[in-house]
Amino acid sequence: MNMTEEKIQNDIKITHGMAVIDASLRIHYVEAGSGDQTIVLLHGFPQTWWEWRFVIPNLVSAGFRVVVPDYRGAGDSWRPASGYDKRTMAADIYKLLKEHLKIDKPVIMAGHDIGLMVAYAYAQEYRDAVSHLIVIDAPLPGTKAFDKIRSDPRVWHFAFHTVRDLPELLIAGRERPYLQSFFNYRIFNVGAISNNDIEVFTTAYSAPGAIRAGLEVYRAFDQDVIDNREMLQKKGKLTIPVLAVGGDISTSGSIMKDMMHEVADDVIAVRIPNTAHWIVEENPDVFLSEVLKFLSLG
Q1: Mean pLDDT over residues 186-211, rounded?
Q2: Rounded to 5 degrees, what angle do the CA atoms 190, 196, 199 make?
Q3: Catalytic residues
Q4: Which CATH number is associated with domain 4-297?
Q5: Each residue of 118-164: pLDDT tens digit?
Q6: Domain residue ranges in the chain
Q7: In whole angstroms, what is the distance from residue 91 CA to residue 118 CA?
């Protein structure tokens, strides 16, 4: 295992690691804190673990052990040709936590955007391994809310990203302007994602195979719909506490409560002020306050 250490805000030390999942996949992750309770943070597209940079130090200060992976195909994780359905991606995270990090106690699982889909798949598949689920501003495949929003022109990228090969052709060499426009189209606090942050994400998605891998998570949506409906029919709704977080002016913000009630019994829904889609960066203080309140109740 290759590990390095660095410091982020408030002199919080983070450790980088690489977990061998199988012969074709290694998962990069960041770890911080040594609390008894572990919270796992899953990023979305087009981001990496760096999405959580404002949240990690405060969760550590609140007493949590924090694990922040780059999911399959993103950041410094490897980019296999397949396996981008969310059940497989959840299995990657399970192996990281159980086999590599040897975490035996149930974790708090949090996911934003694509990470929401992976976090839900994890909670459904590994019910005894999750104590709380936090889902942030995205439609969940297999729900009525997903079917409705999928045809909304404001989520044009759902259709574009599922086209085979053409998006890679159009984006190649133009990763920075594409990502910049992608962020700007769905943001309230335009100062939340700086030029340096754009550079971090651009570097990640300019790597060989990175855009292809990033788009594969969208191309797997039809399989995710099938998997989530089958799991819901087989296992029923989640019974753990669920926090459904929506942006104040986000396309997904207004659907989060009803959507999660489709798949979970115990749901608390909140809208974060002064945010659109990039909630944990646009208003990290209020987001964190709601998370800590939620965890104190469960």
Answers
A1: 96
A2: 105
A3: 113, 218, 277
A4: 3.40.50.1820
A5: 999 999 999 999 999 999 999 999 999 999 888 788 889 999 999 99
A6: 4-297
A7: 9
